[in-house]
Amino acid sequence: MKYLALIYSAPGSNPDYGTPEFAASMEEWNKVNQTYIDAGVMVSGDALQDVATATSIRIRDGKTETMDGPFAETKEQLGGYYLLDCADLDEAIKYAAMIPAARYGTVEVRPIMDLG
User: Fold this and answer.
1) Which of 6, 28, 39, 91 could form a disulfide with 86 if both were Cys (CB 3.0 to 4.6 A apart)?
2) Residue 82 in contact with residue 45, Cβ under 8 Å?
3) Rounded to whole angstroms, what are the CA distances from 100 to 33, 52, 60, 111, 113?
4) What is the CB neighbour count within 10 angstroms for residue 28?
5) What positions does the domain YCII-related occupy (predicted)?
């Protein structure tokens, strides 16, 4: 079964790009990626650009409205995801707990709905 691990963190909780701390953080992320690949659970995963680049849409009265930024104002922002193919929720939670952002943010694990 496929599970989506949504990675949320507060702005500024990650090390700044180009710093030694950022390089060390990337080593952690790369180790997690390799663990997933070696275990055969990695389907895909990507980091998202900053929420300042987001555009939200909604349709009201048949008209499309667009807004800059995310729809909801929250402390933590969606920063990336992993799509994992795991035997069950327990296995998905085991792998999601390895995501470095779980220590300073939140990782939400949700099963993918099979519509086929």
Assistant:
1) 91
2) yes
3) 11, 23, 39, 21, 26
4) 14
5) 1-114
φ/ψ region of 17 (left if φ > 0, alpha if ψ in -120 to 50, else beta) reads: beta
- Between the CA of residue 60 and those of 33, 51, 54, 66, what are the distances in Å? 40, 23, 19, 11
Encoded tokens for 16: 């700044």
Residues 6+ apart with CB under 8 A from 20: none
CATH fold, domain 2-111, is Alpha-Beta Plaits (3.30.70)
Confidence class for position 19, pLDDT limits 50, 70, 90: very high
Q: Is the pLDDT of residue 109 over 70?
A: yes
Q: How far apart are CA 41 and CA 10, in angstroms?
A: 27
CB-CB contact of 5 with 70 (8 Å): no
Quick check: helix, strand or coil at residue 93? helix
Q: Within 7-113, where are the H helices?
A: 20-39, 89-96
The residues pairing with 45 across neighbouring beta strands, listed in sequence order, are 82
